[in-house]
Amino acid sequence: MFKLSYKLTVRERVQGKCDRHPRYNPEKDGRAGIKGGCSACYSLLDLHNARLKLDAAVHEFVRRAGPWARPREPRRKRKTDAPTPDEVPEV
Ligand SMILES: [Zn+2]
């Protein structure tokens, strides 16, 4: 039997800009938009590509896990110290 549980939370807010090419946008311009082999622009492109790969990997994982996934059971409520009215023993 194969058993796993998986929890992933990634929160990053990124605002990247090349000092020499402030108008470069890896989403729109891609690799062809990089001028003179600028390393900062390549870093932005690599970051963009990493994000796309991450999205694709998470999507693929969820898609493949779907048929085997068990819905999470709601958390059990702790019993309170004070008995509820229907738990009070009759005298
Ligand atoms: Zn640049």
Short description:
With 91 residues, the protein is an all-alpha fold. The chain has helices spanning 26-29, 39-65. Zinc ion binds next to helix 2.
Written account of the structure:
- The chain has 2 helices and no strands.
- It has a domain at 37-68.
- It is elongated.
- With 91 residues, the chain is an all-alpha fold.
- The mean pLDDT is 88.
- The protein has helices at 26-29, 39-65.
List the helices and strands and how they pair.
Blueprint: H1 26-29, H2 39-65
The structure holds zinc ion (ZN).
Residues 18, 20-21, 24, 38, 40-41 line the site of zinc ion (ZN).
Q: How many β-strands, per DSSP?
A: 0
- Give the mean pLDDT: 88
Number of helices: 2
Estimated share of beta-strand residues: under 5%
Structural class: mainly alpha
Cα-based radius of gyration, to the nearest Å:
25 Å
- Regions with little confidence, pLDDT below 50 for 5+ residues: none
Order of helices and strands: HH
Percent helix, as a range, is 25-40%
Shape: elongated
Q: Which small compounds were modeled alongside the protein?
A: zinc ion
Largest sheet: none
Keywords:
binds zinc ion, 34% helix, 91 residues, mainly alpha
